[in-house]
Fold this sequence. Notes:
Two copies of one chain form a homodimer. By secondary structure, chain A is mostly helical. Chain A is 74% helix and 1% strand. Chain A has helices at residues 5-26, 33-44, 50-61, 70-90, 102-105, 108-128, 134-160, 166-191, 196-223, 226-229, 235-238, 244-252, 255-266, 275-285, 287-305, 313-323; strands at 95-96, 99-100. Chain A has a two-stranded antiparallel ribbon with strand order 1-2. In chain A, a hairpin with a 2-residue loop joins strand 1 and strand 2. In chain A, helix 15 (287-305) runs antiparallel to helix 16 (313-323). At the A-B interface, helix 4, helix 6 and helix 7 of A face helix 4, helix 6 and helix 7 of B.
Amino acid sequence: MIKDSSRFESTYLKEKAIIEKKLSGLLKNNNPKSLYEPCSYILNSEGKRIRALLVLLSAQAAGGRFKDVYNAAIAVEILHNFTLIHDDIMDNADKRRGLPTLHIKYDLSTAILAGDNLIAVAYQNLLKDCKSNDRRVVEAFTKGIIEICEGQSLDKEFEVRKEVSIKEYMKMIEKKTAALAKMCCSIGSQISGGSKKEIKALEIYGLNLGIAFQLQDDMLDIVGDEKEFGKKVGGDLMEGKKTYLFLRALEKARGKDKSDLIKVIRKKGIKKNQISKYRNIYIKLGVIEEVKQLVEKYTDKALKAVNKIDNAGSLKWLAFTLLKRSK
Amino acid sequence: MIKDSSRFESTYLKEKAIIEKKLSGLLKNNNPKSLYEPCSYILNSEGKRIRALLVLLSAQAAGGRFKDVYNAAIAVEILHNFTLIHDDIMDNADKRRGLPTLHIKYDLSTAILAGDNLIAVAYQNLLKDCKSNDRRVVEAFTKGIIEICEGQSLDKEFEVRKEVSIKEYMKMIEKKTAALAKMCCSIGSQISGGSKKEIKALEIYGLNLGIAFQLQDDMLDIVGDEKEFGKKVGGDLMEGKKTYLFLRALEKARGKDKSDLIKVIRKKGIKKNQISKYRNIYIKLGVIEEVKQLVEKYTDKALKAVNKIDNAGSLKWLAFTLLKRSK
């Protein structure tokens, strides 16, 4: 579907390695160790580094060079890791990418502080790549953080609320996940001196890609391959999360299916042996198919946004690759 | 001792009221409420607003106007409030300024998120006052946050360490408290277009004032008036905190005094009825008198730094006023 697919993939792998090397060296010699060891621990843990890649590829699409935005790319990756640390505390998560989460490996205070510090370290790195257009770039970065906090706050609020509309859910993932992808594209293209039109197009790309990514994540939670996906299949249902799939199923269900779904809310989750029952309800109601189509719809929107941009080949490749991912 | 003392005081009170009005209106209409109500709760709680004042007075000393740095003044106050929220979690504190702390009034997740969000809201406000010199101002602001995190990390580390040197303690308070005061003076004077020399002088003023302030705080904990001071007298001893007073007493003590002091470390604090015993040890060893002299020494350094600056009258007044404070 995409020409030069293997070339784009090798660029991704090469740049991912560069980003990881920069991240692992970044805070190595900083003191006090009680603060910087945990910061390095999370920065060194494995990740797809998609957000850093979005900064690099948006810079390229706006006519810029990777080497002028590496610090900004690192900044968004650091910011993403701050959210992981604090989200893991809020979600009581013990493990992340197979390793103990920060508040488990160290303690609560250390994890809170490491997250706080990473926000500032992210700004510090971003500023290294800012030139004349500092203010708008820092503003976009700051707006991104605020939206992440607002999104996370809605997510926590939805956990305890009885009713959540699909519109509200979409607003939440737009803020919690998609706003950061949008911000990555925004700062990458802005630092590279992209035109207003290019910046806008790349922002639309990032936002829609982010929404598609999150909906896909919701879907893979129930139909994904446990080994490939790397997360427990059915985890969202076990935790009673009100995902798009769940909310849409609740809307469409009647009779026993409906009362079974309401039970998930009332009991704040289900047991592992009930997952296949609920998967069958989802399949019967056609919500998995619906979400698949939605993922395609948002991916198409992302692709369409950058259609008139010359150097957007790798961004298109990324969208196709994420769409067919199983992890 | 200071001419025009009452004029300076009325300026302080007037500006404090302006800052509080701005702070109370700032996030009033923001959504989601689950995030912004707790943010407003802390911003509306009482405070001396000294950090905001430092921004204003440093701008004035550098030849600028208050009205050009109000947003920056609000930014440092917001930043200070972020540190209060997260520090209260780490210290397991139930009350702050007579009110329930955020994680008690709401919950842990809400408090973590509100603090995170306030960091970004602080940047958002700072940026409103940035013009051509954005980058250096944002850099100074960012460096301030990193130093606060490093200082807090050292503070937590010292709680569990058996031995802490006075030099290490001084480094800790320099980062945890004084770096923010220095940053306030730095950004106030930079935004106002102060000369390099003026900026440097005001930074030295802020740093030394911050150190004096913290040492005074340590001292008031043991000799302060409970009602006026607003905090429990002897609280540091009860929590087994290794303050300057404590570390210096440990250095000077011999025999039973020494073993009594070592008990504070071993038992991680003392009972309320033992406070006067330890106060007497401090008095006998002369450490309270020593700290008083240190507070004066650092205040003098602060005053000397701004001696050649024309418009520094109010900064001098502030240093004198803080020096004689009992709360």
